[in-house]
Amino acid sequence: MDLSQFRREYLKGGLSRSDLKDDPVVQFSDWFSQARETDIADPTAMILATVSRNGMPSQRTVLLKYFDESGFVFFTNFGSRKALEIKENQKVSLLFPWLDLERQVMVNGIASKISTAESAKYFMSRPRESQMAAWVSSQSNTLSSRAMLLQKFNEMKRKIGEKKVPLPTFWGGFRVKPLQIEFWQGRKSRLHDRFLYSLDETGKWSVARLAP
């Protein structure tokens, strides 16, 4: 299939240095608020890239649950591929593809587990069936059939009944502490605007414009 002529122009706007906040997390918050006000199906969706022990990268979409100056938080099974790769190599990359706005944000940083108390607080806010699903899914492991997964889920529902669903010891959150954050805005003729924030050893952010 030849896709060489499949293209479009990016015409929704530009990005200049004067538009940017000094703090990239504040800048991200502004862009995130704008994404939430659009018809983007899920502005919290982000692509998480990890690297295995042998250097093979892998990607998957996860959901951002909250963020602040300390980092960007998502949740997962600690036995999943992403969690096991983070255990071997804490350097990860996040990508927010807000294509309807002709924007993307890339975050490079260090992932580490959050506290059990913090994970429990979020876990208790999840829908009850999502809590039980966390118990029955051995994420990333081979599954014989969907019927088997549903059987385990229904057994869990019967076992728990009306009781409170406890936090699994193998499930929780990771926080990605940003070291670099890049903001990309599409422009006409592929002359896109790119600005990279980098954190120095003193904890201060610098900003550089990158060639598209």
TrEMBL record:
| Gene3D superfamilies the record matches | Electron Transport, Fmn-binding Protein, Chain A
Keywords tagged on the record: Flavoprotein, FMN, Oxidoreductase
Specify which residues bind substrate according to the UniProt entry for this protein. 7-10, 65, 122, 126, 130, 190-192
Q: What EC number(s) does the entry state?
A: 1.4.3.5
Instruction: State the free-text cofactor note.
Output: Binds 1 FMN per subunit.
**Location of the Pyridoxamine 5'-phosphate oxidase N-terminal domain:** 38-156
Q: Which domain of life is it from?
A: Bacteria
**Cofactor(s) named in the record:** FMN
Give the Pyridoxine 5'-phosphate oxidase dimerisation C-terminal domain ranges: 171-212
SUPFAM superfamilies in the cross-refs: FMN-binding split barrel
List the GO biological process terms.
pyridoxine biosynthetic process
Q: Which residues of this UniProt protein bind FMN?
A: 60-65, 75-76, 81-82, 104, 139-140, 184, 194
Name a GO molecular-function annotation.
FMN binding
- Which PANTHER family does the record match to this protein? PYRIDOXINE-5'-PHOSPHATE OXIDASE, PYRIDOXINE-5-PHOSPHATE OXIDASE
Family per record: Belongs to the pyridoxamine 5'-phosphate oxidase family.
Which protein, by its recorded name, is this?
A: Pyridoxamine 5'-phosphate oxidase
- Organism equals Desulforhopalus singaporensis
